[in-house]
Structures are given as C-alpha cells and as structure tokens.
Amino acid sequence: MQFPEYRPRRMRRTEGIRRLIRETSLATDDLVYPLFAVPGKRVKKEISSMPGNYHWSVDMLVEECSRVFDLGIPAVILFGIPEKKDEVGSGAYSPKGIVQKAVNAVKKAVPELVVITDVCLCEYTSHGHCGVIVEGRVHNDETLELLAATALSHAVAGADIVAPSDMMDGRVGIIREALDAEDLEEVGILSYAVKYASAFYGPFREAADSAPQFGDRRGYQMDPPNVEEAIREAQLDVQEGADIIMVKPAMPYLDVVSRVKEEFDLPVAAYQVSGEYSMMRAAAEKGWLDPQNVAIESLTGIKRAGASFILTYFAPFVADILAGR
Question: SS3 of 247, please?
Fold first, then answer.
C-alpha cells in the first residue's frame, strides 16, 4: 500500500472512526490503587511528594476503599507504616500489625474488593533495608522465613493476594510452601519478579519512611541496563509458584514489560511508581502538561506494552475520567 491509494489519515478523521479501530483500550478494570495504612484514628494526611495520595488510618482507609470500589476499581494494594521499627522488622509479621488490621477491616467492609498486600520488611526495619542485616549486609536466607511469616499473617487476615517485593532469592517458593501448609492454597502470589534499582522510587520512600539508613539496594534489586536477567528472574518466580509477575517501574521499562509478556503465559502486572506519578503531577501543576491526557496516555502505553493490569496512584483520577465524571 502506498500514497495516494492508501491514505492513513482517512481512519483518523473523526473520534468515532478512531474509537472504532483503536488497538488498545484502557479500562477501570485495569487499575490497582496503592494505599498507605498508618496508626491512629481519623487520619488522612496528604503525602507532600505525592499530591492526591494520603496516609490513612484504618478507619479512614475503609472509607476510601468503599469509595474506590464504588468507582469500579477492582483492587487495592496495601502498604503499612508501623508505630515502631526494629532491626528485624517485627511489625511486618505481627498478627496485630498495621497491614493485618487494615486487611481485616477492609475485607469485612468491602468483601468483593480484591485486597493485595505488599510483602517486604523495608517499611518496618529501623535500617530501611528489605531484609535481615548480618555483618553489614542483607542476608538472603535469614530473611526468607520472615517474609514467609509476613505473607502468612496477611493471608490469615484475609488478603486475596500477597505480593513479595523484597527481591530475595527463593522467596516465592518459601511463601507458597507456607501458605499451602496452612490450607491457604487459594491465596495468590503476585511477585515483584522484575524490580529494578530505580531512581524513580524517591517519593515512595518518603511515603513509606523506608529509605535505607546506609548503603543502597543495588545488591538485591536489578541493575537498570539488564533485560535478559529480567527473564531469568521471572522464570525463577514462575517455577516457584508465582501466579502473576510484575515489572517495576513501568514507563522506563516498557521494553521489559513487552519481553516478559512474550516469554510467559501468565498475567503480567506493571507498577507505575511514585516518581513516574509525581513528575507528571508536578508538570501538570506547572501547567506544562494536561493532567487528564498525560495520565491516560501514560497508562495506555503501559497497557499497549503488554501489562494485564497496572498499579498506579492515578487510579481514582483515571476511573473518573474513564467514566466521564
């Protein structure tokens, strides 16, 4: 086909025609909303580096989850900020921990909402790393039992899906074993299989108060230039029993999302992380970008790359846009 016989602009002439042949569709069903649970009552405190996102006490979190469900968003992922932190992150796996309380309350109030929980120690450790420190380094194998205990406590509280984000080797397998041993085989595992040591996590670390107190996370999170390693990481998690695999961040790694989708016959999630969200929000507040268009375009690009669903702080905002509200 060539000009003048073929004129591609004919099929772009009106919005109706564009909709008719559109190859990728973004829907509210594609969205998962991250939420931060904190101690206290009637707490709704905006996170300064993530405008429009908040720290929620459990009572307020329940109200927000009810609103989210009414918007048509099918799932949330919960993060917790404990009252106290210690060297081994005991708040992560305490039956009375903040996420455990939040899961229990949300599932009672909104039982049909899918509740996913982040499984990691970084929000709960005094040093801010994702595992147990032994002789100045994060010790992989000593961390595994604590991660399994955390996932199990979330599942017992009512979580539908647990999502290990720590990047310790072998954690998916030990979590699957722990869940199955307690007759919780129906609880799914969403693995942060491909999680890069990214510069885009800054606002989240303020939100979760989880910045490392020494060193960095490059010894366990992935090196940004690598994609073949991403396939190996995902393969390991699939073999260990992951039900869904995730790529994080999303926008700088759309090629990785696409490769992972091609390689594996499982749902692939992508996390549009705090830095991606905050830079677009900041540009919109300056008047440099249109907030509605940039949110929709960025998420559509992630979906086009192959994501089955997207974790995004834009979720309620985009749900309103898609519904025409």
Answer: strand
Six token digits for residue 223 = 């090196």
Structural domain includes residue 227: yes
Put simply, whether the predicted model's pTM sits higher than 0.85 gets the answer yes
Is 188 within a domain? yes
Active site residues: 195, 248
Per the prediction, the chain carries an average pLDDT of 96
Structure tokens at 115: 């509740």
Place of tokens 């830095």: 275
CATH number of domain containing 217: 3.20.20.70
How many domains does the chain fold into? 1
What Rg, from alpha-carbon coordinates, does the chain have? Answer: 20
- Helix (H), strand (E) counts: the chain: 11, 12
pLDDT on residue 78: 98
The answer as to whether 36 is a domain residue is yes
23's CB contacts (< 8 A; 6+ apart) are: 304
Residue 95 lies in a domain: yes
Cα 71–chain centre separation: 19
Amino acid making up residue 138: V
- Residue 111 is part of which domain span? 26-246
Residue 269's Cα: distance from chain center in Å? Answer: 8
180 vs 202 pLDDT, higher one: 180
